[in-house]
Amino acid sequence: FREIVAALQEKTTGPARLELSSLCCEALGRIGTRKGAIVPLARFLASVEDERRAVPAGVALCILGGEEAMKLLSSSRERFGTSGPFWEQVSGVLERRASARLASETPRACLDRALLRRERGDLAGAIADATRALEIDPQCGDAFRDRAIAREMQGDRAGAISDLGHVIELSPPDTPQAASARALLAELQGKK
Fold first, then answer.
1. Are 79 and 110 in contact (CB under 8 A)?
2. pTM of the full predicted structure?
3. Which residues, 6+ apart, have CB-to-CB distance to 154 below 8 Å?
4. Separation between Cα atoms, residue 104 and residue 109, nearest integer Å
5. What whole-number distance in Å separates Cα of residue 38 and Cα of residue 52?
């Protein structure tokens, strides 16, 4: 696809090249291909005068996401304003994407991600994912346990001890989860 786009762009000149660039980048954005799409979309948004023509590029940036895309959307919002078709369409896409992301996020999904991150050595990411699971379900003992393990690996003994206390509080006393948490807590409290 990229090769076809590059060949078409080489053959096209003038305003048609800008339009083709926008269409190609919009296509890359809609299929989620970040590489090679952000810069041309930024150029297009900077040069287009009609905010209706800017909408597809804004939608593509919403789909691509990321800090750079959000900065471009913010500057385009300032340029076009918030009462016209550009921001009306773009803000709708942003809201739908945020709602879908939150609706699909479960404690289990967060904990699966936390485990993968911990195994890769990304302890801060593992802690953040376990914390997100607790934001969704504050009574999730598994989230406290996973965060305790990552905190201990990171050297935050006090945080790990606190989280293990929550696991013990939330777990019925005669369960393997409670026994495991008590054993790990005793081990951590015994370390100096």
1. no
2. 0.50
3. 123, 124, 127
4. 9
5. 19
Contact 163, 137 (CB under 8 A): no
- Per-residue pLDDT for the chain (192 aa), expressed as one digit of tens each? 455 555 655 555 455 655 666 566 666 655 656 666 777 778 778 888 888 888 888 888 887 777 788 888 888 988 998 889 998 998 888 888 766 766 668 888 888 888 878 887 889 999 999 999 999 999 999 999 999 999 999 999 999 999 999 999 999 989 888 899 999 999 998 875
Rounded Cα distance, 178 and 142, in Å:
11
Q: Are 137 and 143 in contact (CB under 8 A)?
A: yes
Cβ burial of 98 (10 Å; 0-12, 13-18, 19+) is: exposed
* 3-state SS, residue 95: helix
The closest of 94, 31, 99, 33 to 58, measured between CA atoms, is: 94
Task: Please name the residue that has the structure tokens 């006090």.
Answer: 158
191: part of which helix (H) or strand (E)?
A: none
Burial of 159 (0-12, 13-18, 19+ CB in 10 A): middle
For the chain, the C-alpha Rg in angstroms (whole number) is 24
C-alpha to C-alpha distance for 178 and 183, rounded to whole angstroms: 9
pLDDT at position 140, please? 94
